[in-house]
Amino acid sequence: MPDPAHRPVLVPLLGDQLTRDLASLRGRAKDDTVILMAELWDEATYVRHHKQKIALIFSAMRHFAEELEDAGWSVDYIRLTDPDNAGDFTGEVARAIERHDPRAVHVTHSGEWRVQQAIEHWPEKFACKVEIHEDDRFLCPLPEFRDWAQDRGTLRMENFYRDMRRRTGLLMTADGKPVGGEWNYDKLNRESPDGGLDPPPRPTFAPDGITSEVIALVEERFGGHFGSLESFGWPVTREQAEAAADAFFAERLARFGPYQDAMVHGQDDLYHSMLSTSLNLGLLDPLDLCRRAEALYEAGEAPINSVEGFIRQIIGWREYVRGFYWQFMPGLAEANAMEAHRPLPEFYWTGETDMRCLADCIRSTRDNAHAHHIQRLMVLGNFALIAGIDPQAVQDWYLAVYADAYEWVELPNVAAMVLYADGGRLASKPYAASGNYINTMSDYCRKCRYSTAKKTGEGACPFNPLYWHFMHRHRDRLESNHRVGRIYANWDRMGEQRQREYLDSAEAFLETLVGANPGWARER
Ligand code: FAD
Ligand code: DLZ
Ligand code: SF4
């Protein structure tokens, strides 16, 4: 406990900084430090987060505070229901400064630009010294990403990823070559779920006393938010997160690669790790997970395509989108290169649509606060892209509905990868696809009221005409793109009448879309 005659250092921990070895805490003496954690109204409502997301964060925060206290740290924990709760980070730090009279505040760089802006004003606001530490839970420091990005006209994840492989030594031979001779084994990772799949269930963690209390609080205070709390089973402690990782490595990693892009109705997790919530909260260490996967390859227990694929998601995509976010904020949040202005359809919130693929992805999102990557990208995202939905409405939806969503990771994925709203800085082409892609990679279409074989008119899969409507309306922008341009030869070969049928079909469908009830949306 800090000596009351001695002015301590105040260390505010944000809700996704639940790491014992956090930079602002590392090396600090327990008797010289007060840790501040606060459940904040502003953070819980700046988008109307899924109820499971709020419950997860509050429960993980409370468990972490308890773990720190048990280890002898002094933790000043502010509950949502504290009558003097200021509601925001800056207000709570100001109150804590009054209580503890610290000689300095040490904070670790925030995951969101919005919060980081507030932190950067702390030195002028507060009389004591403020030190902001780099968040070195990420493997690529932001200044290094900046240097890497500045040297290049075009940014591509694959180049970044190879540098990260060299830097970490993961899956590298002693003479600096990629293990197995290839950097990327994605060509082996596109198995469709034709004969059905039978993945083992992931472990879920029944709510203990702390989580049950938090669930009741969330139901009471945020009852109108999207999503169900019924199936809450996320890991809320480091121990549980490690158990979830153990189960993934033992039971699912080997088939992670081949079925990475598969989708099966009602099977929500397949062979995915389901570790993003724990990674993003700081309960798991990314490099440690990658080393464990690598060791399983070396022991002959998992194939190279699964292990390389998993490692690429973490040291490649996860690090890349984080660097990209900080490189292009704040502009990225406003970008709308495709000039898309249609409101988000209401069915994104209700799941009430006859499109079976979308209905299933939205059901999983509502029930689990999770959908796996290819559902987020090629069903929910693809639809938003080709239907021309306003990027800010789509961004707010993704940020609200997923338990792993923080803006540093959500925004680049949504604005740049899915919606091409950045005009192609992140992705070399828009991920637009007709119903064929979903039909090949899933079992959704078999029982859908629409048919992918039907291209236009009544009963046609809406992705078919919408795809051509998208390609047609963006011809000026996309025709010169060497990865897309050839498509226009197919369009031109169709002839005017067929083209008209596609465009009329798409427009008739778009007219049926009902915009979301604004009560769900973020107030801008
Ligand atoms: P796995 O499939 O098991 O992958 C392993 C890990 O790799 C994940 O836990 C994650 O940490 C990382 N990863 C994989 N793909 C990505 C990616 N594209 N970007 C960053 N990290 C990645 N991920 C989030 O953590 N938060 C988000 O808010 C988020 N929003 C997304 C929005 C869209 C439109 C898309 C296309 C992807 C988004 N992702 C997001 C990435 C990915 O969908 C999730 O990380 C993944 O579904 C989490 O489930 P998992 O842990 O089972 O992942
Ligand atoms: C997302 C979130 C929520 C819902 N609630 C809190 C909270 O009450 N207290 C807190 O410290 N953090 C919360 N967070 C996480 C923050 O939004 C997150 O730390 C910042 O956005 C930076 O990534
Ligand atoms: Fe989705 Fe079209 Fe398949 Fe129906 S037919 S599930 S709308 S892709």
Concise account of the structure shown:
The protein has 24 helices and 5 strands.
Detailed description of the structure:
It is a single chain. This protein has 524 residues and is mostly helical. The chain has 24 helices and 5 strands. Strands 3-2-1-4-5 form a 5-stranded parallel sheet, with helices on both faces. It is 48% helix and 5% strand. The radius of gyration is 24 Å and the shape is globular. The mean pLDDT is 96. Helix 21 crosses helix 24. The two termini are 43 Å apart. The chain has 3 domains: 9-133, Rossmann fold, CATH 3.40.50; 142-202 and 252-328, Serine Threonine Protein Phosphatase 5, Tetratricopeptide repeat (Alpha Horseshoe), CATH 1.25.40.80; 347-520, DNA Cyclobutane Dipyrimidine Photolyase, subunit A, domain 3. The chain has helices at 41-45, 51-70, 89-100, 113-120, 122-125, 142-150, 157-168, 209-221, 238-251, 253-256, 276-281, 286-298, 304-328, 331-334, 347-350, 356-368, 373-386, 391-401, 407-418, 435-441, 463-473, 475-478, 487-494, 496-512; strands at 9-12, 33-38, 74-78, 104-108, 129-133. The longest helix has 25 residues, at 304-328. Bound molecules: flavin-adenine dinucleotide (FAD), ligand DLZ and iron/sulfur cluster (SF4). Flavin-adenine dinucleotide binds at residues 272-276, 279-280, 310, 313-314, 317-318, 321, 372-373, 376-377, 381, 398, 402, 404-405, 409-410, 413-414, 417-418.
